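Support request, please re-run this one:
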Amino acid sequence: MASLRQTARRLFQTLSQIPELQPATALLIGGIAASQYLHGVNPESIDVLINLRGDYQAGTNVHVARLAQRRFPGIFTIDNNPGYGLRTVFRGVPIRFHHKDTLPWITSSSMTPVANAGSFLPFLNMYDLMVSRFWSARLRGTDYYEIDISQAVKLMVKLVDPVTGLVSVTDVQREFLRCPVEELCGRSDTDQWLLQVFEM
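Re-run finished. Output below.
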């Protein structure tokens, strides 16, 4: 696990130093790579497919996808297939991820053979949990919301169940997920709440 922590931290540090890369996308890309590493796959050999539809995730667009390709040649490819929000090929099994407003669990018929092999992708669950409500809601009226990347890595490593590969969700985090976007934007204690939610 120490090796995973070190690898994940290096990945996030590298990604966070790229000024053109939005934090949400850095967290997404680093999470995918760290998750693959957790299951014994070298991140350098992973194909990450990013859909070009700009309305699917904040920060996922043509510019970012092409930037990732240039900075990390051979790792990232662009997925133009209709109907996919985000897709990664894990050991030859295409996996489809569905964006939900409730608990951010991965749901897909393609998940069955991967689950049977004991290979979940837990860090993408944390991506949904930590990023989608932040940037999509534009909590500060901007595309950015500052979050300590190293703390995010620590949280993801701590919450992942080593047996199931799933990420635990606390009662506070569940409450946060279920809170309407409008209420998040209107709350005066949003900053304090976010710190409590993610135990920073």
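The longest helix spans residues 23-38. DSSP finds nine helices and four strands in the chain.
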